[in-house]
């Protein structure tokens, strides 16, 4: 190319065609994504800091995006709690924050985030109604116990620090990943079917159960179990009254003194080790932790239960200080996120994408069938890094996307009586 | 003294302490002042408002949890202290009075420090596969026919927590005790023996009193380390027990910084009282100057 160019002393016809086609392609591409066109020269200098929990901010995804988009996405992981503190106290250190929906309840009112203009998100219309409309697959309303994503999804517009009751033109965050959580079990050590949350507190498993030591999640798992034992019916497990908190914690203390629990885990690896080491046979767990236990060759099932799942999800928030070319780049990144590559990547970790249709295009039929449709794998299922995580013939625990996400009983949340709840939780742990 | 008294000599000591004083002010003074200030401010679970309130202290001081937490932590500190003093004193005694060869003495002393070549976390976590239900120790006991089902008490229990503390912190006792024992003039012991003292009498009336500076220093290390810990408690008790700092961590995780600060101030007060009690029993300054 260059040699021919030099020979003719200028741009030859072929080169010119190629260059203009590329420009046209880029223009068409960005037009398609609904983001304004950005001059390639400037955008190369853009660097966006994406901060969020490790299950959402993944270096491989950021690298792929940087390669596809031509500017740099810098991943940085932080626990949800650290991230909330950063968003409020050091907003300038973040460009894009991956926030849990329950965290939005706390940080949105700080006014440090700017709303996402829905008109600039090309695939918003294709987004699952779970997130976009707060509706279940059959059109019914989703459970409102806890922080249902829809409740924190919309806002009036720039500068509004409240949530809107219905859909508006401005989203607080752009939904990315979500999942339905339940308990992990060791079927080989239990040896009988497990169908209800009440089993968590069954005397049969005395000393062989565990709860997560994150107060607002641990107490909800406990509430699921107490409710299914028929002890009491909560008005809202995601927003308990003081009496409900007292009852729950008092029962937990009784159970603890009776030796029901082996441990209360705080980190991912603790939960994996408890399960893989045979210390517990049934416990609160995250989906990838179950995968990690399986990867060690130990049988472990993420058991769907009849009372339903505890749902959670994350959205990407734009920090208030983003403007000009950086803001444009951020919108391009948001649009890239929904275009399929990321959706397929996280599907292989067991999470769902907010736009499943684009993820489907990037998954094989076998993968789509296994992860989303609850069908038996026709060949080995690989995790995002290429390791075998389930054999041909295996079926995903809990079944299809519809049966899992369609059966969410409550959502991860923060309660109005949170301060009191944390204090009582500390009492439980130290009892 | 009088002849050399000019402007410079007056300033010299101040200049000499200035670097350390400045570092302490920046690294210790400012953070503590911040924590104290924070403990009087208000928060709504996310933002903090600089408005004076006693609420945080009211919450901390009236809650029965606080007392439970402090008692639990003090219990850990007391057991750990007794065990580390016994082990630390015995090891130092052996090194100083039984190992006569200086090379051997240094060699064995270095041996004590070998665990410190790896990280604290690794040393702690390595107990887990050893003590677990399917761990090495339980399997060995079962193979030997001593027990027929695994002992649960070995891991995720107070036993595991205290064991780990002792493992991690004994060296902090050995070093100062060894140091003060090594300073004991051997002729004192010879004199005691010549005067007809028995081995126990020498130990109790000569060596223990002369080692007390080391024991006091070591105690300060061990007590403050245990009182300030949350990680060992969390991991080794499997979250089943809490300490003052682990409860603080729960509050911080929920962004209740002012409550956590109030708890921190309370902890500082308690630890200061403990340290000053130790210093009252042993006048470390005068002993070190010896």
UniProtKB/TrEMBL annotation, chain A:
This protein's UniProt keywords: Signal
Record's protein name: Spermidine/putrescine ABC transporter periplasmic substrate-binding protein
PANTHER family, alphabetized: SPERMIDINE/PUTRESCINE-BINDING PERIPLASMIC PROTEIN, SPERMIDINE_PUTRESCINE-BINDING PERIPLASMIC PROTEIN
Origin: domain of life: Bacteria
Taxonomic source organism: Pseudogemmobacter humi
InterPro entries: SBP (IPR006059), TAT_signal (IPR006311), TAT_signal_bac_arc (IPR019546)
Xref: NCBIfam families: TAT_signal_seq
Automatic annotation (TrEMBL), chain B:
Intracellular or extracellular location(s): Cell membrane
UniProt keyword terms in alphabetical order: Cell membrane, Membrane, Transmembrane, Transmembrane helix, Transport
The organism's place on the tree of life at top rank: Bacteria
Domain ABC transmembrane type-1: start-end pairs: 70-278
Membrane topology field: Multi-pass membrane protein
Main location: membrane
Record has Nucleotide-binding as a keyword: no
Transmembrane segments: 20-41, 76-96, 108-128, 159-181, 202-227, 260-282
GO cellular component: plasma membrane
Biological-process GO terms, alphabetical: transmembrane transport
Transmembrane recorded as keyword: yes
PANTHER family: INNER MEMBRANE ABC TRANSPORTER PERMEASE PROTEIN YDCU-RELATED, INNER MEMBRANE ABC TRANSPORTER PERMEASE PROTEIN YDCU-RELATED-RELATED
Family (UniProt): Belongs to the binding-protein-dependent transport system permease family. CysTW subfamily.
Record's protein name: Spermidine/putrescine transport system permease protein PotB
Annotated source species: Pseudogemmobacter humi
Gene that produces this protein: potB_3
